[in-house]
TrEMBL record:
Assembly: Homodimer.
Protein name (Swiss-Prot/TrEMBL): UPF0210 protein M0651_06090
Domain of life, per lineage: Bacteria
InterPro entries in the cross-refs: UPF0210
UniProt-listed Pfam families: DUF711 (PF05167)
NCBIfam families (alphabetical): PRK05313.1
Family per similarity comment: Belongs to the UPF0210 family.
Organism: Paenibacillus mellifer
């Protein structure tokens, strides 16, 4: 980095909440396979603790050297439904517990990959994993889970969509004493990507290397400050400003990623430039919308503003690194963004508006709290809608929704830390159960037939 870049970076860190949100080590567990549970768990524990032994220390050293906050150090592993597919068992909960022990041993914040890819159907391992999710997320602290139920090439597995509505409710009930927080560690995807470093949806794809370092950079505060300098200017100026800012932010991530890769002796994978907010004032996607000229997130024009933000973040990031990947764009979680929370409380932002916004954001309905009395079929309907958006538009979409047991619309649930807090949002009360009960698979759209 040049002297000018260093000075700009220092300013972004001090004044605009710039951080490296995560260094995530992806680890393949394919060579750990065994039919005996005890042997398999010992294999995965040994491999994870050996591979990631120096991950946290390296992250801390880089923070001190470069002065860049590295908020999380994380691990993603091969989807457990695949790695543990040879086990003769009806539960993978002991595997989740082994993952949790390994995560605690090396000191990472989260470990992702208690996952299944069922867009076209279920293997035996997929069924065991999905049925294990509620208990696994209840008895572990750092394990995150994801299920991919659809893709643009395969269509949507509606049997999986139906089942995940029930699984989410069961997970909420199993962690009801903690604000149903288990659901905050569970994501349902369409078009899941193999190199995403962000939780709760990270897993190490089967097309990835043996071990790899992926870095996620976040800078909504930096973008907000840059846009304050061009208030009232035309859209071309707005877009150019976002691109230039995203370029600078990505350069910081590139520096950290390359140095982490060198020190750990692990190949560098991708930079994920995702504007991921926090509950901190000044670190909000909703505040960016306000600087753009909207009174609140959710006002008419919000989807257009988000499309501008998402597209130009990607354009700037691609120019700064040859290996931009993951989900790169703008996240719109409710509980993790104080501006989004305020918009919900003021009535500017509804679940339906958030769904419209997911057509152009980097993921989908994220960290949304709903009444604990919501039916499994309604949750499945919400998942089906998001999966359809992803399938038809050939983009990643996801649902991380939290039916908070014992709470109703207007009440607040506290999660703490980066997960923040959330108002309970209303959901459409009309019945969709007969639609969900049809089962089977929604075929892929016509434009998927490309070869």
């Amino acid at each position: 980095m040049s002297r000018v870049e260093v000075q700009e970076t220092n300013s972004m860190i001090r004044e605009m909440n710039l951080d490296v949100r995560t260094i995530t080590m992806g680890i393949s567990l394919m060579d750990c396979a065994h039919e005996d549970m005890n042997v398999f768990n010992r294999n995965i524990y040994d491999k994870i603790t050996r591979s990631a032994e120096h991950l946290v220390k390296t992250g801390e050293d880089l923070e001190k050297q470069f002065g860049v906050p590295i908020v999380n150090k994380r691990i993603s592993v091969t989807p457990i439904s695949i790695a543990a597919g040879g086990l003769k068992t009806d539960t993978f909960v002991p595997v989740a517990e082994a993952l949790d022990r390994a995560a605690k041993e090396v000191g990472v914040n989260f470990i992702g990959g208690f996952s299944a890819l069922v867009q076209k159907g279920f293997t035996n391992g997929d069924r065991v994993l999905i049925n294990s999710i509620p208990e696994a997320l209840a008895v572990t602290d750092r394990v995150c889970s994801s299920v991919n139920v659809g893709s643009s090439r395969s269509g949507i597995n509606m049997d999986a969509v139906k089942q995940m509505g029930d699984i989410i409710i069961r997970t909420a009930e199993r962690t009801a004493d903690r604000g149903s927080i288990g659901c905050a560690k569970l994501v349902v995807f369409c078009n899941a990507v193999e190199d995403n470093p962000f939780m709760a949806g990270a897993f190490h794809g089967v097309g990835e290397q043996e071990c790899v370092i992926n870095v996620g950079v976040s800078g909504p505060g930096v973008v907000k400050r840059a846009l304050e300098e061009v208030k009232g200017k035309d859209f071309e100026t707005l877009c150019e400003t976002i691109k230039r800012t995203a370029f600078k932010v990505t350069r910081v991530g590139q520096l950290v990623a390359q140095e982490a890769s060198k020190r750990l002796g692990v190949p560098f994978g991708i930079i994920d430039l995702s504007l991921a907010p926090t509950p901190e004032i000044g670190d909000s996607i909703a505040e960016i919308f306000q600087v753009m000229g909207l009174e609140e997130a959710g006002a008419p024009g919000t989807t257009a503003a988000l499309a501008i933000l998402n597209d130009n973040v990607k354009k700037g990031g691609v120019m700064a690194s040859s290996y931009v990947g993951g989900l790169s764009g703008a996240f719109i979680p409710v509980s993790e963004d104080h501006g989004m929370i305020e918009a919900v409380q003021r009535g500017a932002l509804t679940l339906e508006k958030l769904e419209a916004m997911t057509c152009v954001c980097s993921v989908g309905l994220d960290m949304i709290a709903i009444p604990g009395s919501t039916s499994p079929a309604t949750i499945s309907g919400i998942i089906a809608d998001e999966a359809a958006i992803g399938m038809v538009n050939n983009k990643t979409t996801a649902v991380r929704i939290i039916p908070v047991i014992g709470k109703d619309v207007g009440e607040i649930v506290e999660f703490g830390g980066l997960l923040g807090y959330a108002p309970i949002m209303p959901v459409n009360a009309f019945n969709c159960a007969p639609f969900i009960e049809r089962g089977g698979r929604i075929p892929a759209p016509i434009h998927s037939f490309k070869n």
